[in-house]
Amino acid sequence: MKKSIIAFVAVLATSSLMAGGDFQPEDVPVAAVPAQSCNKNTVFREKDVDLMWQDATYTDAEQSAFKREYSLGKAGTQSHAARYCQSLNYAGYLDWRLPTSDELAHVHNIEGQVFDNVTDNDFWSSTPTERNKYYVVFPADAMIYARAVRQSNYVRCVRCTK
User: What pTM value is reported for the model?
Assistant: First the structure.
């Protein structure tokens, strides 16, 4: 009989915990919730050339669009990239544009990583090349390459500050 009571109490305690019973003492410390999100949507100011760069988080959906060769947000074809920047309302400004290949190469040649939100693939520029192609810039080495306009690449918009 004694064993049955002990087994019953153990089952009752276990089922209470599994069912979400209030079994924890009141003074258990709770982790503080940070005041701001880990994903920042900021800007980078390149003061020596009077440019402000969009520094927004690249979402999973945008990364998927890049990988699957379709357009969504900050990834897509060259015409999508140009339209995205022209219609961008970001950081209180409406005058964003797609950067030139020289501007992109310049910002990626700055010592150290200047952007909080990065990706390791090509970014569209507004600089055309021959045979219906446009230049892209690879951020790791700031090299410029020609790409077909229907190819999917990432987008980072820029605006003049003066």
Answer: 0.75
Q: Is the Cβ–Cβ distance between 45 and 126 less than 8 Å?
A: no
The C-alpha angle with vertex 25 and arms to 21 and 28, in degrees rounded to 5, equals: 115
Per-residue pLDDT of 30-89, as tens digits, reads 555 445 556 577 999 999 999 999 999 999 999 999 999 999 999 999 999 999 999 999
Q: Which domains does the chain have, with CATH numbers?
A: 42-160 (3.10.100)
CA–CA gap between residue 21 and residue 24 (Å, rounded) = 9
Q: What is the CA radius of gyration of the chain?
A: 26
In 3D space, the residue among 119, 134, 131, 44 whose CA is nearest the CA of residue 80 turns out to be 134
Nearest-CA neighbor of 54 among 133, 4, 114? 114
Contact yes or no for 51/158 (Cβ under 8 A)? yes
Q: DSSP assignment of 24-60, as one string?
A: S-TT---PPPPSS-SS--EEEEEGGGTEEEEEPPPPH
d(CA 118, CA 124): 14
- CB of 135 closer than 8 Å to CB of 127: yes
